[in-house]
Amino acid sequence: MKRIITIPVIAMFMVCILFPASIIAGNEATHTVNVQKKPKEPFEHNMRLDEEGRRTPPAPLCCVISETAGLHISGLSEDIISYEIWDATSETIIASFSAESDFIDFLFCQTGVVMIRLETESYYLVGYVEI
Nearest to residue 82, comparing CAs of 98, 70, 93? Predict the structure, then answer.
């Protein structure tokens, strides 16, 4: 009996942890972006190899961007230093911000696909969002 109750409770708890801003968002404009961690400087200890000798890419982090709730990244322990918006080809920077609110306001004024790059102390978080 405990197992029948425990499994759904754990499942609901996991969903709430992974997508808290999505649940609260309601009718506001919200975008979910998968971002990849990219080290600023590749060090030897950053080069983990799989069984065939290839580097395994890091698992993506879920980033939820909302006009009112702000930016939420599950599993991020470092502060974001800068927020950048690049074109879809990642060749030209469109804008760079040090404040999260300015970044979000500018991002929601864009149209089409853009790349976002969030800088922390030791790595970049990179992902694509379609507005």
Answer: 98
Task: Give 74-91 pLDDT, tens digit per residue.
Answer: 888 889 999 999 999 999
**What is the CB neighbour count within 10 angstroms for residue 28?**
11
Determine the Cα–Cα distance for residues 15 and 10; give it in Å rounded to an integer.
9
The tens digit of pLDDT for each residue in 18-45 reads: 655 555 545 567 888 889 888 776 555 5
Query: Would strands 123-130 and 30-39 be described as parallel, antiparallel, or unpaired?
Result: antiparallel
**Locate tokens 């069984």: which residue?**
51
Length of the chain: 131
User: HSE of 23 in the Cβ direction (CA atoms, 13 Å)?
Assistant: 9
Amino acid at 33: V
Q: Angle at CA 58, nearest 5°, toward 13 and 48?
A: 130
C-beta separation of 43 from 37 below 8 A: no
